[in-house]
Specification:
- The chain has 326 residues and is of the alpha/beta class.
- It has two domains: 4-204, inorganic pyrophosphatase (n-terminal core); 210-325, Diaminopimelate Epimerase, Chain A, domain 1, CATH 3.10.310.
- It contains twelve helices and eleven strands.
- It has a six-stranded mixed sheet with strand order 6-7-8-9-11-10, sandwiched between helices. Strands 2-1-3-4-5 form a five-stranded parallel sheet.
- The two termini are 33 Å apart.
Amino acid sequence: MAPVGALEAAVALLTRAADDGATVVLSGHVQPDADALGSTLALAEGLRRRGARVTATFPAPFVLPASLGWLPGADALVSSDRLPADPDLVVSLDAADLRRLGDVGPVLLAAPASLVVDHHASNPGFGHVTLIDPDAAATVALVADLLDGLGVPLDATLATCLYAGLAADTGSFRFGNTAPGTHHLAARLLDTGIDHARISQRLFDTAPFGWLGLLSTATGRAVLEPDTGAGLVWTWATVAEAGEHGLAADQLEALVDVVRSAQEADVACVLKGAADGSWSVSLRSRGGTDVSAVAQSLGGGGHRMAAGFTSHRDLEETVAAIRAAL
């Protein structure tokens, strides 16, 4: 359950917007994952049912991952350059800081009212009203509380979006952020009749054949450094390499979930190279290292067990900075 005072303030803000038929913009973070997108789509639909005029978006580049395009409501997403002028309320979902909102950030700052809903411990709280709970397994768990507060009953449409985010951010309930309340929420979502097996298959067990080639390339160059911190395993791949295998850039995201299996390393790291020469770095911990502290020291953020940052140094300098931080 979200912090009571913060939840009440967030529900009150959303209730006023719905009752007034306000223009509301909802946005997840750049390159949205299942939690960001599921949160955005579920809350957008809930607010529409309450009477608000809602536009759901995410920051440029406006490219929806194929693994998430099937979520209910995804076809109604609007690119960030087509947002309504002067919205009454802007809601940020699952963005750990303002930078993660990209070109939607200025829209939020200019709005007369804003709400930040997130579960990242590193979130500084950049909205007029904030609902931030690092103990929540996923942002969708906070959205479920908001929908309850708005009096919007859960049905299969809403539950599909929420379950996708919950399953993704808990690693199918394998990660340390899974708590009793996580399973209680999952049970509520299953009670709506969703096909949870099909949702999980689409999220975790479906990829183009080219993914196997990219995986072979990335794992083949993996490096184990047992004496770095509590042990580090890292590898890298680029957007260009993904393209050579016929893959979109978002396919790089899943590499860290394979690399993290190395038992000799407490920390797993995957560096994903962009066309502009920057590196998007994903960090995962087995529990002995707070990777959010590492990421924050390098300009990023996240959770104790999962975090990331963007580097504009070259590959060798970026890895050296990670070593030093560890």
